[in-house]
Design brief:
The protein has 100 residues and is mainly beta. The chain has one domain: Sandwich (Immunoglobulin-like), CATH 2.60.40.10. The chain is built from 1 helix and 7 strands, in the order H-E-E-E-E-E-E-E. The strands form 2 sheets. Strands 4-3-6-7 form a 4-stranded antiparallel sheet, with no helix packed on it.
Length: 100
């Protein structure tokens, strides 16, 4: 059972970069890893906001990237064969003009 739980956990490191002065948007990037720290190749990562949704697949190094994500509340979902679905709600905002 413990081995199954270990396989089912995805650890997601996400960092966000602010950009654009007029329309607060973000570039979100991160790496999908399992509980042992190994990268997860081919995981489907989706970011969903109030008015948009984007999906991508992790690269060979487990990395993913989204451009042009509007500020506000978003949900990040990660799905991969052999792993439990990972979903986390987040809030991104820009408090002052931000430049790329």
């Amino acid at each position: 059972m413990l081995q199954f739980v270990t396989r089912c956990l995805l650890v997601l490191a996400v960092s966000a970069t602010l950009c654009s002065a007029q329309v607060p948007v973000r570039s979100i990037h991160g790496t999908v890893r399992d509980r042992t720290g190994a990268v997860v190749l081919g995981a489907r990562v989706t970011v969903r906001g109030t008015s948009s949704q984007q999906s991508t697949t992790t690269m060979a190094n487990g990395d993913f990237r989204f451009e042009g994500v509007l500020q506000g509340e978003i949900t990040l979902t990660v799905e991969a064969p052999g792993f439990a679905r990972f979903e986390r709600g987040m809030w991104y905002w820009c408090q002052r003009p931000c430049f790329k």
